[in-house]
Here is the input.
Amino acid sequence: MAEAHQAVAFQFTITPEGIDLQLSYQALNQIYLSGVRSWKKRVSRVRNSLIKGVYPASPSSWLFVAIGILATMYMQSDPSMGLITKIQQHLPLHMSLSTQGQTMVSALVFSTLLWLSLILALRFCLKLLLSYHQWMFEKHGRISNTTKVWVPLVRLLSSRKPLLYSYQSSLPHLPVPAIQDTVSRYLESVRPLLTDLEFKRMTDLANEFESNLGNRLQRYLKLKALWATNYVSDWWEEYVYLRSRGPIMVNSNYYGMDFLYVTPTSVQAARAGNTITALLLYRRKVNREELKPSRVPGTVIPLCAAQCERMFNTTRTPGVETDVLQHWLDSEFVAVYHRGRYFRLWVYRAGRLLSPREIEYQIQRILDDPSPALPGEEKLGALTAGDRIPWAQMRKQYFSSGVNKRSLDAIERAAFFVTLDDEEQGMRGDDPEGNLDSYAKSLLHGKCYDRWFDKSFSVVIYKNGKSGLNAEHSWADAPTVAHLWEYTLATDAFQLGYTEDGHCKGEVEPSLPQPQRLVWNIPAEAQVSSSLAVAQALADDVDCHVFPFREFGKGRIKKCRISPDAFIQISLQLAYYRDRSGFCLTYEASMTRLFREGRTETVRSCSNESCAFIKALEKHLSACSKCRRLFQLASEKHQNLYRMAMTGAGIDRHLFCLYVVSKYLGVESPFLKEVLSEPWRLSTSQTPVQQMNLFDLKNHPDFISLGGGFGPVADDGYGVSYIIVGEDMVNFHVSSKYSCSQTVSNVSVSWIFALSFCKGFFFPVLLGLLL
Here is the structure.
């Protein structure tokens, strides 16, 4: 318990002679330095609040306005048209100041008010400019005059170097679409999936909803849109994520992988040291708002950064009816799991971040610790993997006080969670690519108890130095976590680096305290095993397949003058059609971060145009000109659907919010009930590469990201995630369930995709036609 004694700043003993007070100057010094660090962060927050509060102006611009007003008054002119005189008459200090002093103060007050008015005007203009989205729908080379004027105005108003959150108050609010437009788009999206009789029935339901209940629900939704920052996001977070009572493992959480070909070091502790350091450096950038705001690729248009706020020091706590996201402003430690034991690892000492070498040293201490797990400790994490209600009940009964509460607080308040896995993963052995499947399953669910699935994200460091992460979904979407993980991988490999023998760089302070072992008192009746059984059954049912596609990539697709995303989405439609002899409702995630607090919208990729193309391709392969035309129409339709989803004209979030309103009002809508019960048998998502400048693929071609994946949404469907890497590669992550006899991840999607594109059938024909 040496670390416990070091944490005590003073001790006192009562003796017959009086009180014997003993001070620990080392502990007091640590407290002082930690306080200095906290105050520096407070000052930094105040400074950043001022800078972003006046954006797109600057704090120094007040001085120019004040000097301009005073200079004008010096020239015997009143730029305020009498307002300065009126301010002077109402000054509370007019009796104690000279006339000249009163005039000076009044001029400064007027200058401040004028300056604030100019800031509001500039911000309003920027908000109007960012509300213009027609530029997304204009074809290449056919830019309208409006857009030509709009581009330089946006550049002018956003020319100052922004902080991470500078644009937040200038982003427009997500608009509520007209109910007629949403219903019409919905009917168009389901037309290829329904028979004539089914479509007529759905049309009747939709028309009845639109003409009666829909307008009433729409009025309430518009009222919320006027009051709330975003009419979707809070309900989406609560009802889609936090109120779900099933396991979040597999069903909600997703994973991210390491480099495909490269492992920077095979030393587990060293990889952990650099990875933890890189993550904490990213957190420092977030706290100081030094990260550049994300933008629409190739433009100056900013994206909402609100999801970064809860990236670190965040956990999801279970409840009987709904979970709650808890976030703390700061945390100076991470939680570490190794061989059934939990540790608290302090990553700051004397107010400074430990060096990578020092963190490696501390991690190695954990790896070398021979102590066994306490009773009930090893599989405790299974509580976060099973159903939410039992976990909430267990938490209230056994973790609300005493030593269990203190240890649980250490995990939940940690910056993030780290698992030191005792397995080896990655491309290895006799079947390197086949082993990627077990790598994906390991990151998705592990052993069901060696991850803390409630943390905002958990980092996994394997025995052979491979790494990855598992992220909880409610606080943010995949692009935000992908941005973090890209920075982490690049900083680890190219900035921090390793010594020749694979260890971290830097020196070790010899007096570092031991990592603190967390202590538990878990009774036998805690029934962790029941949650583990639920989680294990779910994990055993998941079939994952990782498929690096190298035959061609974005470069050759663009030569066809086709959107790479549209190309891949249509190919997945073809794959599903050949696999199941039909089409299905298809989900592609699109972001709505053009709007404040925007999250995602659904692109319904299975369209009339894509279905017509696939049917023509299957029936009339020789009719190449017809296939070409239909393929171009399908691609253009998909791009248009994606743009509409990004600009707030999607279908599903609007209908979802109308459904929530109907539940609050206690009214039933057969139309909404049927819409929201439709299964997404093909759920897809593209992981964007956002920081290519961090990866020099020309000089380091092996440092290729594998991307990440997620579990299937429907029991009889597929989950497909893909990442377009460079010009010549697309990595696919396909998941399904073994319990469904109609789905096989390894064969059905990826094999058909390869057959369609590589074996001389689909791509060569289109390439020859479109070039």
